[in-house]
Amino acid sequence: MIKYLKITGAIAMLALMASCKKYLDKTAADNYQITDKNYLLTESDYRTQQVSVYTPLQWLNLLVPIGDIASDNSVTGGESASDVLDLQQIDKYTQTPVNGILSNLWQYAYEGVNRANYLTQYYATNPAGQSIGFVGKDAMYGEVYFLRAYYYFTLTKMFGDVPLVTDKRLDISATGTLKRTSKANVYLAIENDLKAAIGVLPIVQSQTGRATKFAALALLGKVYLYQKKYDSAAAVLQNVISSNSFSLISDFNAIFEKSGENGVESVFEIQYSSDGANSYTSADPAQGPGNYAVQLCGVRELAAKSTSMPYASGYSINLPTQNLASAYAAGDQRKAVTCFDVAAYTAANPAYGISFLTAPYENTGLYNKKYLPHAGQTNTSGGAFQLNYKNNYRTIRYADVLLMAAEANNQKSSPDDVAAQTYLNLVRRRAFGDNEHDISLTGNNLYTTILNERKLELAMEGERFFDLVRTGQAAATLGSLGFVTGKNELFPIPNIEISLSGLTQNPGY
Fold first, then answer.
1. Which of the four, 7, 18, 51, 254, has the lowest number of CB atoms within 10 Å?
2. How many other C-beta atoms are found inside a 10 Å radius of the C-beta of residue 79?
3. In Å, how far from its chain's centre is CA 179?
4. Does the pLDDT at position 9 exceed 60?
């Protein structure tokens, strides 16, 4: 498995050094272990920096809870109405430009962009003007293009028009000079990066967790879908399906067990680690090598007399709603995995001696079992206890690819509802274990069913809010919950970015 490294690609503080030059005779190399002048000199330097481009993926872990908390799938929960206030505001559509979690997500995504840009800036020659060639360099850069596309996709689906920089890394000289780029042009840059990645990435990687050609194809299909480019989406996603490289496993629950990581249904996963050597040390719990959001999803103040109880206690954040639970038909195995009924589980397992000290705020009685914390999957050393669960995010699953392909085939200029039904029913047959729940609808009725299937299949995986927005269903679905049309389709640009760069704010904030 690839292990993401936390290093900086640009350690030399150029502006500071310039201001101190007349007072010091020392060179940057005297003061810093690594600078622009002595980095990217070898293949090892390039590959180490390339791995660091993956690291901010881990820091985006709260994006997944937001994708459901901002929708009708879940509520924030927690200890009280003020617990993790940033998420409470997102849940109630009262977020402001000073929301700390949104500011961090902006910052972390741009950190990923900056690390990618540092490498692309020095593709032809390194900072010393030397050409560094090695076998596999183009394929390595394919991963960089994929990652930059992922970061920009995260930014534009959250914030709309965002500053687009691809030719160089951002440094202090960029302060006050950045402008927002139209979403259409950001998407064009994302498409270009993914096409470049597809052209050079291998079908299978030597290390689990690295981006592949199919990961890039699947992400490009999703990017097309967000822009309603259905013909292009259908064609791209068909390449993933026709490869026969992926399949749906029969046991839905097994996908989200530790043993199910990076399996036959995995197109791309964000890798997490609880290794003691990589313990969480940041001021922001999300900015570490472990999956902090898993701790948030855990059952509040859970206690058990038996040490064999498989689940660990958590903060009762991101609680599935009873409305979500009731959307599942009888016999759908996804319900128990998505909407974990803790009272029913306690009653069915008396030997564990489970007890709860207090109930969570906005208690629904349900928890997200997909990312429920398991005993023994966090590291207790280095002050990292409970903050570094090693649960991977199943970022792009094959079921998602099938449902995207179903939607694209149904909506393209010459609809192919037979293909759409086929892909939809593959997902439903796994859910029910039979073909008696197959769908034979066509046209708009089929489209509505496909979108509903996305809700059921991908619930609590961070897709719901963005699906509602991109399909124009957000106002009708979320209006009674406080969603304001013309405002809440996007999140506010962080206030610090407004102050530093003079960026314009999104409407309504």
1. 18
2. 15
3. 25
4. no
Q: Give the integer Cα–Cα distance in Å for 339 and 350.
A: 20
Closest C-alpha to 311, from 256, 260, 363, 359: 256
Residue with tokens 């969570």: 360
Q: Residue 389 in 3-state DSSP?
A: strand
Measured in residues, the chain has a length of 509
Q: What confidence tens digit (pLDDT) does each residue in 479-497 have?
A: 999 999 999 999 999 999 9
Strand partners, 314: 300
DSSP structure class, residue 374:
B
Instruction: Give the DSSP H/E element, type plus range, for residue 237.
Output: helix 230-242
Closest CA to 466 of 66, 58, 22, 67: 67
Which has the closest alpha carbon to 371: 54, 61, 57, 55?
61
DSSP, res 321: P
Say how far apart CA 465 and CA 488 lie, in whole Å.
10
317: β partners:
77
Quickly state the pLDDT bin for 417 (edges 50, 70, 90). Answer: very high
Contact 216, 396 (CB under 8 A): no
